[in-house]
Design goal:
By secondary structure, the chain is of the alpha+beta class. The protein contains 14 helices and 18 strands. It has two domains: 98 residues, Helix Hairpins (Orthogonal Bundle), CATH 1.10.287.40; 308 residues, BirA Bifunctional Protein, domain 2, CATH 3.30.930.10. The longest helix has 38 residues. It binds one RNA strand of 90 nucleotides through helix 3 and helix 4.
Length: 425
RNA sequence: GGAGGUGUCGCAUAGUGGCCUAGUGCGCCCGCCUGCUAAGCGGGUUGAGGAUAAAACCUCUCGCGGGUUCAAAUCCCGCCACCUCCGCCA
């Protein structure tokens, strides 16, 4: 949710953001009208309510017949107050519903357009030339099966399509990635967190995951709970309805959790292997910071992602996601995509978003405004970014494979895997 | 799952239908006093929204949501959280 005051004060900026996203800009005028309607009905209600209250004191003081007369008189006001309150409530709800439909206002200067309109900011490292090395690279699943690391067949037997078992060195490799990520996060001052993966609907809503992509989310109907697709949700809800002290800098958490995604609408895409699955594990950075510090914090999160990618020694590129591909909460999003040799293209390994005050506003996360002498509050900014996921196994296996099907473990992972080379069983 | 209890302004507490515009103590902030500190004295101290050039001011907020009433922290219903006990279970 964005600040209604921004719509009032700078509607053109909001319209421009909607245009860049390829979304309806007429909603801005609808919001302005609804805001006007809310304020006038609120004023009307408050005026009569004040009248009712002062009249109530006269009733309390009166006795006998006089009191009976006053009570009768007060009755009429009471009905009218109820009516006005009802219409003021309706007007507020109407405005709220409209404002909640509005995605975050984009950071100025990011690319306009949709999925394919991203800008490549940087390419790091070069893909290996397997032809020059004299062998055809195997894809991650073939390697995974050869190494006894990935079992898709039994995953499907037990849970259906897009489920899998990580076995033996596969399980060790996943734990290694996640533990390396947690270790790095701790080193940089993050608080490690193991989060709930079932959350209430208001937290799911607040984090912004039930708007455009609600069909991506698993829902437990009997309990009115949702399975989270990332620990970002629980970490955003962690400080809901609190006033934080950010005077010592951002509050940074590293969440470790299983992640669940329905992958509705991706039938036929990435059906092979563990690139696109219903359940995986992730270590996610999450930061609460001051709004004016958010863009810098975003760069810091990106920096920590790059540090992790350097440790697994894979070629990758960084893209600046186009406005129309952001989703509701982010104002800007950087993805790091690793080279996947057998696909001949880059695939997302990390994603870092600056949600500015969008999530915090919905979740009621505030701080004392350092610019205010009266100690008023304001909403904080929230950001998130990936430090490691199950999918990283794909990039590691394919980029570090050798002609005999063995895989060299990147040095930084070796203490966590406990092996220098993974060899076919 | 069942029974009982509790939920008030940062903390502790008072408040059983109108005098609550929610009192008091502690803590915290500002000031006075004072060689310094403490004590003492005076004032301030939930959050949200509206109004305003800014204020004064107005409305809402006593776990959350409904209801009764001219009037609700107070009465009624539902929900949630916590505590105690019983049962069941990893």
């Amino acid at each position: 949710m964005i600040d209604i005051r921004l719509v009032r004060e700078d509607p053109e900026r909001v319209r421009a953001s909607q245009r860049a996203r390829g979304e309806d800009e007429g909603i801005v005028d609808a919001i302005l009208a609804a805001d006007e309607a809310r304020r006038s009905s609120l004023t009307e209600f408050e005026r009569l309510r004040a009248e009712q209250k002062s009249f109530g004191k006269q009733v309390a003081a009166a006795k006998g017949e006089e009191k009976a007369a006053l009570v009768a008189q007060a009755k009429a006001t009471s009905d009218k107050v109820k009516q006005l309150q009802a219409s003021a409530d309706t007007a507020s709800e109407d405005l709220d519903a409209l404002v909640r439909r509005l995605p975050n206002v984009i950071e100025e200067g990011i690319p306009s357009g949709g999925e394919d309109d991203y800008a490549v900011l940087e390419t790091v490292g070069a893909p290996r030339d397997f032809a020059a090395e004299g062998f055809e690279p195997r894809d991650h699943l073939e390697l995974g099966e050869l190494l006894g690391a990935i079992d898709m067949e039994r995953g499907a037997k037990v849970s259906g399509a897009r489920f899998y078992f990580l076995t033996g060195v596969g399980a060790r490799l996943e734990l290694a990635i996640l533990n390396l990520a947690i270790a790095q996060a701790i080193e940089h001052g993050f608080t490690p967190m193991i989060t709930p993966t079932l959350v209430k609907s208001d937290v799911m809503h607040g984090a912004g995951f039930l708007d455009a992509h609600a069909d991506e989310v698993y829902r437990l109907d009997d309990d009115d709970l949702y399975l989270t697709g990332t620990s970002e949700v629980a970490l955003a809800g962690y400080h809901a309805d609190e006033i934080l002290d950010l005077s010592d800098g951002p509050k940074r958490y590293a969440g470790w959790s299983a992640c669940y995604r329905r992958e509705a609408g991706s039938y036929g895409k990435d059906t092979r292997g563990i690139i696109r699955v219903h359940q995986f594990q992730k270590v996610e950075m999450f930061s609460y910071c001051r709004p004016e510090d958010a863009a810098d914090e975003h760069q810091r999160l990106l920096g920590w992602e790059r540090e992790m990618l350097a440790k697994i020694e894979v070629p990758y590129r960084i893209i600046d996601t186009a406005a129309g591909d952001l989703g509701g909460p982010p104002a800007r999003k950087f993805d790091c995509e690793a080279w996947v040799p057998t696909q001949g293209r880059y695939r997302e390994l990390t994603s870092t978003s600056n949600c500015t005050t969008y999530q915090a506003r919905r979740l009621g996360i505030r701080e004392r405004d350092p610019n205010s002498e009266k100690g008023t509050t304001r909403h904080v900014a929230t950001l998130n970014g990936t430090l490691g996921t199950t999918r990283w196994i794909v990039a590691i296996l394919e980029n570090h494979q050798q002609a005999d099907g063995s895989v060299v473990v990147p040095e930084a992972l070796r203490p966590y895997v406990g092996l220098d080379v993974l060899r076919p069983a």
